[in-house]
Amino acid sequence: MFPIIAQNILNALQLGSVYALIALGYTMVYGILTMINFAHGDIFMVGCYLSLAAALFLLGLPLHLPAGLIFLGALLFSMLLTAILGVAIERLAYRPLRQAPRVSAVITALGVGLFLENFTLAILGPEPRHFPPLIAMTPWQVGGLSLTLLQLLILIVTALILVLLDLLVRRTLMGMAMRAISDNRPIVPLMGVSVDRVISFTFALGSAIAAAGGLLYGLAYPVLDPYMGIRIGWWAFISAVVGGIGNIRGAMLGGFILGAVEILTPMVLPSSTYRDFVAFSLLLLLLVFKPTGLLGRPLFERV
Amino acid sequence: MTPILEIKDLWHFFGGLCAVADFSLTVQPGDLFGLIGPNGAGKTTVFNLITGVFRISRGRIFFRGEDITDWRSPRIIAAGLARTFQNIRLFKDLSALDNVLLGASARHDYHLWDALFHTPRFQRVEQRWSKRAYELLARFNLTRYAATPARHLPYGDQRRLEIARALISAPSLLLLDEPAAGMNEAEATDLINLIRDLHREFSLTILLIEHQMRVVMNLCQQVTVLDFGETIAQGPPQEIQQHPRVLEAYLGREGNTSEQWPLSSNQ
C-alpha cells in the first residue's frame, strides 16, 4: 500500500508543479490589478506551443545538441516570447480599460483567450501535436518508487522558479513595488515608481512562468492542442483561489493541492472523470467556509 | 538665486467648483515655508498639483527653474521632491523598513537583471540603501519596528515613518501635509522640534501645510494664507497674525482677535 500512495504523491507533485506555476500568473495579476486574467490559461497554451517549436527547431539542426541544451533553449525561447505576448496583451487589451468597470476587463480577458485559441487553431489546425521526448522517461527504481529523470527535472525547475520568485517579490525593489501596488496603489507614483512599468513587468513575469509550465507540461503530457489551456487554466485558477488569490505562496500551495486532487480522485472514486466534480466541490466548500482562501487575508479587516 | 519652487497663476476646478484660484508662490532654497488656511481652502489640492496627482489645466509650476507642469508623479519625485500626506498613507502591510526603502525607489540605480542575478552592483546599491534606511529609522527612533508591518505602529510613529520615507530619497524640497494632525500639545511640540532639526540636519527646504497655528508660528519664516482657493495674505508670521482678512477667515467677522489662535480643528 505504501509504495502506491508514495508513487501517487510523487505524481501529484509533478502535476501540482504545473498548476502552481500557472496559478502564480493569476494571483500576481489579481494582486496588482484586482482583475482575473482569464486569458492566462491560453497564454500557457501558447507558451507550450512555443517551446514545442523551439525544441523541434533545435532538434532539426544538424548539430546533435545534447537534450539538456535543447531543454534550456526551448525554456528560454518560450519564456521570452510568452513574456512579450503577456506584455502586449496588457498594453493593447487591458490598459485602455484600466478606468472602465471591472466587468469590461473580465469580458475582454475572455475574448483575448478565445482569440489565442482560435488564432492557434487557424495557424496550426485542429490536429494534436506531439512533444518530442527530450528527457529520458526510463524510470529508476528507488525504494519501490519509480522516478523518472523528467519528474525530477520538473520538480527541480519548479522549486527553483518558486524560490527565485519568492526572493524577487520579497527582496528586490521591483517585488517591493508589486507589493506596494497591491497595498496602496494611489501613492506608488509618489514614491517615484511608474505603476505602468510594474504592471508590465508583472505580466511579463507571470507569462514567462506560465511558459516554463508549458514546457514542463508538454514534456510530461506530450499531446498539445489549441484548447489545452482551458481546462488547465481553470484548474490553475482554482488553485490560486484555494490558496488565497493575490497571495503568491498561496498559489504555490493551491497548485499542489489541486495536483493532489486530480491524482488522488481516481484512487478514491471509481473514475478520473470525477476529478472536475471534486475540484469544483472543493472550491465551493472552501468559498463557503473560508472565502479568502487558505492563505488569503480577510477582505474587510478595517472596521 | 533661482527659487526652488515657483508657482505661477495656478487654477484648479473640481467640476464647477473652484478649488484653487490664481495661486502664486515662490519658495527660496532653505526656506521653511507655511501654507495655511481653514478647511477646504485648497491647501492639499495645491500639494496634489505640485506632485502630479492632479493634472494642471491652468498655470505653471517650476521646480529648480525647470518647468514641471506637465510631468507625471514619478518624474517629479525623481527630480528631488518628496511629500507626506494629511491622512497617513503608508503601505500598511509592508514592514517599516520596506516602507522607507520604497521611498528611495527613484534612486535605486540598478537593473532588474542585476537584481535577479545578484550582481556586485546590485549588492552595492542594495547595501547602501538598506544602510541608509536603517540610519533613518534610527534617527526617528523606529529601529525596533524595522520588521513590523506599518499598520501595527502607534499613530505618532506612523506619522514619523512617513517623514522618514520621504527623506530617504534626499529630496531638496519636502512637502509636509499637516504633520501635526491628530497630535496633542506635547506631541506637536516634539514635532516642531523634530522638523526644525531636520530642516537643519538635511539642509532641506520645507513647504508645510498646517492647521495648528502654533506649529506654523513657531516654525515658519514665510507664510501664505489660502481661503476658498484664494490667497488672502502672504508674509512673515508676525504680520500674518495681525492681517485683518486672515483673522476674518479664521475667526469670522466678530472674532475675538486678542485670544490665541484656534486650535487644531481636525474632524
Description:
The complex is a heterodimer of chains A (303) and B (267). In chain A, helix 1 packs antiparallel against helix 9, helix 8 runs parallel beside helix 10 (275-289) and helix 9 crosses helix 10. In chain A, the strands form 2 sheets. Chain A has a two-stranded antiparallel sheet with strand order 1-4. A two-stranded antiparallel ribbon of chain A has the order 2-3. Chain A is 72% helix and 3% strand. Chain A has 10 helices and 4 strands; from the N terminus they run ααααβββαααβααα. In chain A, 48% of the residues are buried. Chain A has helices at 2-33, 40-60, 67-94, 102-124, 149-171, 173-184, 195-220, 228-243, 248-268, 275-289, and strands at residues 129-130, 140-142, 145-147, 223-224. Chain A has a single domain (2-289), classed as ABC transporter involved in vitamin B12 uptake, BtuC. In chain A, a hairpin with a 2-residue loop joins strand 2 and strand 3. By secondary structure, chain A is mainly α. The N and C termini of chain A lie far apart (51 Å). Chain B has 267 residues and is of the alpha/beta class. Chain B folds into 2 domains: 1-80 and 171-254, Rossmann fold; 94-170, no CATH class. Helices cover 36% and strands 22% of the residues of chain B. Chain B has 10 helices and 10 strands. Chain B has helices at 43-50, 73-78, 96-102, 112-116, 120-139, 155-167, 185-201, 213-219, 237-242, 244-251; strands at 5-14, 17-27, 32-36, 58-63, 66-67, 81-83, 173-177, 205-210, 222-227, 230-235. In chain B, the strands form 2 sheets. Chain B has a 6-stranded mixed sheet, sandwiched between helices. In chain B, strand 1 (5-14) and strand 2 (17-27) form a beta hairpin. In chain B, helix 3 (96-102) packs parallel to helix 6. Chain B is globular and about 60 Å long. Chain B starts with a strand and ends in a 16-residue tail after the last helix. Residues 255-267 of chain B have low confidence and may be disordered. The interface between A and B is medium-sized, with 21 and 29 residues.
